[in-house]
Every structure is written in C-alpha cells, then in structure tokens.
Automatic annotation (TrEMBL):
PANTHER family reported in the protein's UniProt record: FAD-DEPENDENT OXIDOREDUCTASE (PTHR43031), SULFURTRANSFERASE YTWF-RELATED (PTHR43031:SF17)
Listed Pfam families: Rhodanese
Name of this protein: Sulfurtransferase
PROSITE patterns: RHODANESE_3 (PS50206)
Keywords, comma-separated and alphabetical: Transferase
InterPro entries: GlpE_sulfurtransferase, Rhodanese-like_dom, Rhodanese-like_dom_sf
Keyword Ribosomal protein recorded: no
Amino acid sequence: MTVPSVPVAQVPADAAMLDVREPDEWNAGHAPGARHLPMSQLTARLSEVPADDPLYVVCRSGGRSAQVVQYLAAQGHPAVNVEGGMQVWAAQGRPVVAEGGATPAIV
C-alpha cells in the first residue's frame, strides 16, 4: 500500500496536524496547533484521532508517521504523511514551539 505523503512546503499553515512522537519529543518542540497522540498509544486512543480531512501526520523524520498514516487509512481516516517530519519542518523555518516556554528543539 502506498502511503499518501506531502512535502513540508505543501502543508498549509492552518493544517490539522497530528504529532505521533513520544511525550519528551513533543515537549521539546512541536508545530503550533498540532495535536499530540503518541504512536505507542494510537490503537488504545483511536477515538481521539481528529476527523479532519486531510489530517497531516508528523513524527521526527517521517517513518513513524508513515506507519500511522497507513494504519489510519486502513481505518478510513483521510490521513497524509508529512515527509521528513519535524526535522524538515524546523529546517525549512516553519514555526516550532516548546512546552513551558523552553527554547524549541527537535529531539
């Protein structure tokens, strides 16, 4: 199955984003407005997946989010993988915020 994907540059500024990284990664730096649902908790919390169409899914480098997109697509969710993840997001100068006012970092 081919995973629907888009480059970071094609993600709209107001896109509905789901960040599937672990809490320490999320706390260090994430896209403003993104929702957090770690991949490790996805199946148990499937009812919390936003119904946005499309739903842009992101992780650190694109591997975990591709797996999540494949799973969500099989469940009927219109999910799209963000190629290169938060590493490319930050490298392209897209906004990143951290929890607690810390300096944002992609870890």
